[in-house]
Amino acid sequence: MSRSYYPVYLDLNGRRCVVLGEGELASEKVLGLRRAGADVVWHRRPHQPGDFSGATLAIDASGDLESNARARDEATREKVQLNVVDVTDKCDWIAPAIVRRGPLQIAISTAGESPFLASTLRARIERWLGEEWGPFTQLVGRVRRRLRGRGVPLQEQTAIYRRLMRPEVRELLRLGETAAAEGLAAAIESGGSAALGRVALVGAGPGSVGLLTVAARDLLADADIVLHDALIEPEVLALCGPHAQLIDVGKRGGRPSASQGEINRRLIEEARSGRFVVRLKGGDPFLFGRGGEEIEALATAGIEVTVVPGVSAALAAPAAAGIPLTHREMASTVAIVAGHGRTEDGSQLEAMASAAETLVVLMPGKALEDITARVARVVGADRPAALISSATTPRERVVRAPIGRLAEAARAAGLQPPATLVVGHVVALGQVGENLATEQAQLP
Length: 444
Description:
By secondary structure, this protein is an alpha/beta fold. The chain has 16 helices and 16 strands. Strands 9-8-10-7-11 form a five-stranded parallel sheet, with helices on both faces. Strand 14 (384-389) and strand 15 (397-402) form a beta hairpin.
């Protein structure tokens, strides 16, 4: 059972700290202590009596068991806080893996269970937090001191800090445009909130939180309000910041739902009030997601808009089921159509089914039977087809059957929306990998 530790940051400025041992590991310990301003004494040898006299902190990186025991005894007598590298039962404290970005430091500890895991996580966080976070932390500190000096109430300070966290200031610092970053921070500090409101149209991908882009994650973390589609997975919404207001504006057939005009008005109103609004849309915002209508309304209203593409189910669902949309020997053309509104006039659907070697129909829903019948008339009832339900999520299921019998197979299997229909000879290809979550229909 691992020990429990209390995490702290120590002020070691000018304090005597002792490091024992030689080699790269001991050198790293010395460097870390000196970065903290400590007065470091480095003995490139095992412990000798009196080494810890007058010390505040000590590290034994000698790797010598007898040295470790002597160091532990003297540290106890001299009341010196000791760390014996990789020997936790002789430690008063353990050293975390540290991500350093100027004054911003992130310490990672596994309570001595796995230093390798701590260092691996440090490397991942270092890739995520660029060098711009150092000057950004200093900039936020300067703003904080000015606000406190003016006696700005804490609630107003918090609102300003949240606006500073938007990615624009950090992006300017990343590009080396320090003056522009300072100017934007000053505008936020001065309280010109209405001018700072904006909207991001963000693609949530097909379902799996792992397929969300890095840019999408960052924007969700910074959003004041998120207007999301109905079928967004809870794990994706969990990436929103703790203070974000989440509003479901999804359209549901046969049930009350927000009109597109209402959504457009809400986006504009919230942005004009100075809030950062994320419009979170399933798949990609511009592929049957009405993103074009929303960006047009926002541009007409003079609202700044950012668009973050998403992985469309048109590509992700077949891939998750092991179905390549193209293949050198059987398919070089792909057509993607929406399954909604095709029952009245199927001429466009039939034309695309005839023209493309692979047809993808998004969200066929209740129209599945009509759609499969129309496609079968064009390409033949025996053309291979698949219906993929809840693609890339733990609920994913796949039914494969000739297009003429796919609706019957899907009904027998009880597949639920959201679903993606794929028609073409590529469906008959072997599954990619052995662990795809698929279910094959067994037809009589």
